[in-house]
Amino acid sequence: MTNNEGVTIHWHGLFQRNGSQFMDGLPMVSQCPIPSPGKFQYRFRPFESGTNWYHAHTGLQRGDGVAGPFIIRESRRTDPNAGLYDEDRAEDVIFLNDWHHDTMVSNYQKHNIGKVRVGVDSILINGKGIPLSGSPPFVPIEVFNVRSGTRYRFRVINGANLFCNLQFSVQSHQLLVITGDGSALEPQAVDYFRINGGERYDFVLNANQNIGNYEVRVVGLGSCASASGDTGRQVASLHYETAWPAPMPPSLPNITEEGTPDIWWKTFPNKSLAEVDHNINSGRRYRTTGGAPDVQHYIETSFGTRESPIPNQGTHSFPQLNNISYFFPTSPIMSQFDDLPMSLFCNASSFQTGECEGLTQCACVHTIQVELNALVEIVLVNPDSSYHVLHPMHLHGLQFQVVAMELMSGATVQSVMQLDQNGEINRNLNGPFKDVVVVPDGGYTIFRFRAWNPGWWIFHCHIEFHLEDGMALLFWMGNSADFQHIPAGFPKCGVFPPATDRATPTDPATPTDPATVTPDPPLEFPRADEQQKLDTYHLAWIIPLTFLIAVAVGFLLGCLCRRHAYPVSADQGPGTVEFSAQIRVVPFTCRRPRCRLEYFLLKLFSDRSVDRKS
């Protein structure tokens, strides 16, 4: 990083397991940030094929462009959708993102401190497109070339940083959506679909229209707009072979926003993800979610008005989970758990009822612990209908199955809980498997997962500012006995002195009461007078020793100067020469100590005996 920031890279959509949990790229959970300058080699074996991507997970660097596709193609022999398309090309990957003419750190300061609305300056398709301002020069728009009569598999990734729920369509073409977040769906034939930040959808396009050029259209919904309110949008060109190239548009065309805001949380025109089945031919046993859940957790995704930690800033609206703000620990949990005090960790049960609903901000390393292989059901509730935000929630480490989604009047945790107790929530136990899902604005989303992958996996909103403000928590799956060994030479970082409130540092599954732990004794440094005594003592033996070494080296150099070297004439074979050294013998006639020392040195380095005369 040119600005000397540390960085980590997350491999979005990939399950890190069998020892590669340390390669997930989450700062201060799976690893230390990579220093600048510095290097860190990510080593892992991808567990599943699919449309994935990579991005920086430190600070706000993703919003400045540290992101891109990471595609792992499946063999046609095992792909349940292989018969639906003819071509699956690298050039048919579509990476969407919002772009800003200022750095994300600057935008964050404007938003949180200056209370200024931060909008998007452009929506980009593979890094190309026309800015919303319409001011030239323009970067050429992206072009996708197709051949008439051929079916193409396209892969779409929404790498948005702010809240940009994007509507995607192709002029005059129907789209057959076949996967979501790398997991196969029952194919959905639609004219358009909606894709939120972090999500990926694959679709098949049949190039069966008249030879020509057609617009690929992307439009932002809701608050995905410029600071002045101009709707975020972009176009690319679908170009049929043999057609004349499409001219560069002089400006961005208007693109119709389909549907009404109250259904924009639905992925398909009139169908939510919970109403779509996964493709049963792609199921894997580790993902089974049938039967009654072993545990159920309610998580409220909401905004809380809290006192700002910045002096003289008054109150701020913080996006939170269960009214708790997450902060990253001071050392990576997976590799340096023993260095962290247990007082950093908390969950909703750590606070008194109503304690986190006032102006005081409850903040910690928000953690929910689940047993390995337990079937977990999560009920997400978004009561903030006045904010009009669909939080795209992303889980690291594994996928979950979406079983229910719905709007409701007066959505609260209590009202959804009562609705469920009355049997009024229908669950689709054949729902799709995802790693990102939105929570309807004024509604709920329910998903399940099998906690098969031991580790610490973050669950967070994929809107950059929301994660930075603490809208996240960790799922702690398994215990120390289930974790893999830390890689040899793995980097360390943290604070000094390390944790002192832990009685059993080798077992993270046994937190202790801080009051029962004896703190480490304070470090003692020598006083100034003691340091002077130490320095005098060192000088008393260093000076004579240095003198003796200098005398010995002087005599040694004098003796070595009398050597003569010449080549030996013995034939060692073609192209070889052997060298030896001969010491000139000098008789001694001196008995003084200096002479005895010179004799000793000559004797030591000579290959002949020394003739000593009295």
From TrEMBL:
Residues 500-521 are annotated as: Disordered. Keywords: Copper, Membrane, Metal-binding, Oxidoreductase, Transmembrane, Transmembrane helix. GO terms for molecular function: copper ion binding; oxidoreductase activity. Residues 500-518 have a biased composition (Low complexity). Residues 4-75, 93-242, 348-477 form the Plastocyanin-like domain. GO terms for cellular component: plasma membrane. InterPro entries: Cu-oxidase-like_N, Cu-oxidase_2nd, Cu-oxidase_C, Cu-oxidase_fam, Cu_oxidase_CS, Cu_oxidase_Cu_BS, Cupredoxin. The chain crosses the membrane at residues 539-560. CDD domains: CuRO_2_tcLCC_insect_like, CuRO_3_tcLLC2_insect_like. GO terms for biological process: iron ion transport. Pfam families: Cu-oxidase, Cu-oxidase_2, Cu-oxidase_3. It comes from the Eukaryota. Belongs to the multicopper oxidase family. This is Laccase.
